[in-house]
Amino acid sequence: MEEFFKIKQRGSSVRTEVIGGLTTFLAMAYIVAVNPAILADAGIPFEAALTATCFGAAVATIAMGIFANRPIALASGMGINAVVAYGMCGSLGIDWRVAMAVVMLEGVVILGLVLGGLRKAVMDAIPLDLRQAIGIGIGLLITFIGLKGAGLIVADDSTYIALGSLTDPTAIVAIMALASAVILTFMQVPGALLISIIVAVVVGLPLGVTPVPTSWSLGIDFSAFAAPFQEVDGTMAIVQVILQPALWLFVFSLLMSDFFDTLGTAVAIAKEGDFIDENGDVKDIKAILTVDSTAAIVGGFFGASSITCFLESASGVAAGARTGFSNLVVGLLFIVCAFLSPLFGMVTGAATCGALVVVGFLIMSEVGSINWHTPEVAFPAFLIIVGIPFTYSITNGIGLGFIAYVLLMVARRQTREVKPLMWVAAAAFLCMFLFV
Length: 436
Fold this sequence. Notes:
Blueprint: H1 2-5, H2 14-28, H3 31-41, H4 46-67, E1 74-76, H5 80-91, H6 96-115, H7 118-125, H8 128-149, E2 153-156, E3 160-163, H9 169-186, H10 192-207, E4 231-232, E5 235-236, H11 237-243, H12 248-273, H13 285-302, E6 307-309, H14 313-318, H15 325-344, H16 349-364, H17 375-391, H18 394-411, H19 420-435
Antiparallel strand pairs: 1-6, 2-3, 4-5
């Protein structure tokens, strides 16, 4: 095991990897409840969606651990599941099995781009300052997700967002989680972020914030599996997608989101996990992208929506995870969760708030490495940093920065320094903003 995962070589231990895996899982366990609820609106039976979500995440996460040996967990992506449920199935009335065929085909296309070297080539074409900005923007997004999920910041009609009520029981639990996460992290207590989550769950019990399981559902439902190959109105779902050019617009839309979300997430986690080389490149990036692309295919096949790398993996990395062994822990917990989801449903957004905010803080420390005195990279970097959290989209933030970078390089007559794939990426983002 040591020889395969290189645990000691990367300065870790089995205990640390287990703690890191537990921390990552608890930080992303909300997907077990949220994704099935969203997919149920698309017409998928809840139990089938839950089974697909758990087993899909388990397969993809374990595959990442074995083939890439990096502590990046995967599960059904938020955002893409909403496009499936409320865009394709809701607004257009597309059958959910046809929508899953769209997801699977998007995975096939993006896997082809990875195996052809294009996805890594795009990563290499991005200027270092912009890559750093992507990680920082994601750090702010992680922080925002943590605060929003805990109710510490809320929607407001006049100011868009505002401070939530700090006397609300949910806010009290979140503040306890945040305080314990910060104090234990800076005291260098092993497993600090995991401990903060457990503390918050316990504190939330008497306050009525932590939900207590009322029933134990041990049943699993595999009826969503092989969704693209199930018949809809007498025709196989995947055949309907191939024969309807209009549906390929959704393939392109999901492709753009999947393509750049994963690049951004990989950069952010790699910085935290110290697997970025001296040139700012993510180590083992091709293996990471290959597994992520294959996971999209798995997500469509299982009926779980597109499966992708999760930002919350950064919490496990911050807790010390450095190898794919932590992914085995996460994957096994997802399998257990398919049978015992009510137990893991006790972990609320308030409980994970502290872990996510601390991770955001740790990532934000990279902001000083950007060359703020060179406007042609500094301003695009700024747009990426603010664009990701303000639009609540990694893809949108990256797109704004890429377009600004190309325009500024043209204005400053430095077009020769812009790599060809940056022109292509900027043009693709412009098309996405205008037509999708």
